[in-house]
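Contributing new complexes? Match this layout with magnesium ion.
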Amino acid sequence: MRSRGLTLGLLLLLRPGDSPYSAEERRLVELVASVVGVAIENARLYQETQRLATVDPLTELYNYRYFHQTLGLEVARAKRHGYPLGMLMADLDHFKVVNDTYGHPKGDELLREVARAARGQLRRTDVLARLGGEEFGVILPGSAATAVTVVAEKLRTAVERVRVSSGQGRGKIRITISVGGVSVSHARAEPRDLVNRADQALLRAKQAGRNRVVIEGMEEHDGQENGAVGG
Ligand code: GH3
Ligand code: MG
Ligand code: MG
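Output block (do not edit by hand):
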């Protein structure tokens, strides 16, 4: 089965007995094969287009567009099923210094490693996206504030462990991340509101000194005056 000069598959036909296929039968099969070939090619193109539209090429995480689409769906789902919805916003600390010191390609490599480390801490149903530059968002369906705090802290420590070779005999490059988060009960969930509140928490994590987690409403539980964990 071919389409646009590419061989996409083989069609194998068998029948009992040893009478050969007639010219008429062969024409019919060839027609079916060419139609199926075009259908396979279209399906592949569609899949590839979907991937390009939803995945960030550098990190292979989901992109901004997919994140916001999914957030709308997850808010609706949380409302329907009555479960909480958690969200994290994260931003690398002093990332500009990495680019300035080691060059942009090393910065890219570090971004990829951070993405990989973060992905490894999450469940399949969680949505991790690169929202732009060195900023990441995570949707945590079903997670109340305590669970959001645990995940955020896991992300923070996983990023802290990342090492990328400087390639210049200057040892390893490391990085830290600041994380802000929020969890809302199903009834109160609104996409815009969730994003704003997670952003506010992230800003507080930055202001409190970076390499830390701030989850809205969790100040009294994390053992530090300023509501930050880690650092
Ligand atoms: P802060 O702790 O306040 O977040 O400091 P920062 O340096 O991380 O933040 P700032 O917003 O000042 O700079 C972000 C930098 O991220 C700017 C740019 O050099 C870098 N950056 C953004 N996108 C990319 C990318 O795709 N690749 C690389 N290598 N660097 C990027
Ligand atoms: Mg930053
Ligand atoms: Mg930033």
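Reviewers usually confirm one structural detail per submission. For this one: The helical segments are 23-54, 64-81, 95-102, 104-119, 145-160, 191-207.
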